[in-house]
Write the structure tokens for this entry.
Amino acid sequence: MDYLLTEEQTMLQELALQVAQERIKPVRAELDEKEIFPRDLMREMAQADLFGVIIPEEYGGLGLGCLESCLVLEAIGSACVGVGTTFAATFLGAYPYLLYGSEEQKNRYLPVLARGEQLAAFALTESQAGSDAGAIQTTAIRDGDSYVLNGTKQWITNAGEASIYTIIALTDRTKGPRGASAFIVEATDPGISFGKKEHKMGIRASATAEVILQDCRIPADRLIGKEGLGFIIALRTLDYARPGVGSLALGLAQGALEEAVLFARERQQFGQAIISFQAIQHMLANMATNLEAARALVYAVARYIDQKPREFSKEGAMAKLFPTDMAMQVTTDAVQVLGGHGYMREYPVEKMMRDAKILQIFEGTNQILRNIIGQALNKEYTKKR
């Protein structure tokens, strides 16, 4: 479908697709099999200025919006969601500085992120604080002109590979989530270390590990915003980032659909290509229709966010929920279309199905997103009475 993209948006999309097809796709199987962090690919994406999409021009970026970031993430996701997650995690790590950072923080960190010289990470999750993010235990105690952080963050994308970390920590335990604050921690700071690299079902090219803070002392000017804003910063960051996860799902589903159609046109059974069978046609039709519906939703939400509404938690949740559920179904159906071939690592849909699962889990499980949407509806209709 024609989504009436501007010439600039179309050029950006084509550039990202070129990188995906020419640079990422040929190596995705090896990256997955050997769990190789795609550092070289990150450099190539930096050379293509893709890291600067959401960074304002005054800090060395392209100064574009949510829709443009979604177009890039969809393109990268069509080749490899593991690589896409590594790339997207820097957007996730950058949003707190973009939204709430001081001018000094923006000038210090955004230019290096825009150039792709450094990667970022966002550290909220802990062993007892997953969906219940308000249950975090990591602390940040003010000590003169410093804060001292203690705690362990779990399952952090880019941990050990990123240079810059947004850490959500408690500055006042007595206030619960309202006592949380956001901090910038650098990989070279004393007291920060990283756990073992996790071995995952999917997105194996992406690095996932613990971020361990043991008397990690940072300057007080690394506080983002002010004390007590940490939970708000975290939730707003996720609101902005969730359409990006939905976009990775779009790319993944597009790649799986293409593999299924091509295989169905070539695979012969009972003397004819299996795409001639109604059962296969109906599966492919459902895959294509749901994919297009999800794309329309993500693009619409991204355009809405670019209008800078005051509140879009519900819409951001929808832009992750529907596409990621769709991608899980489409990749599962793609494996089914390929049959025994689809179950073998020789064919990419096996990896695609494994990669799809995490999209329903990170940055808010799809069950939590349904809660967010339901609560927003209740609030909206309460106001209408």
Observations:
- The chain is about 50% helix and 15% strand.
- The first strand starts at residue 120 and ends at 123.
- The two ends are 39 Å apart (CA to CA).
- The chain has three domains: 7-118, 121-228, 231-384.
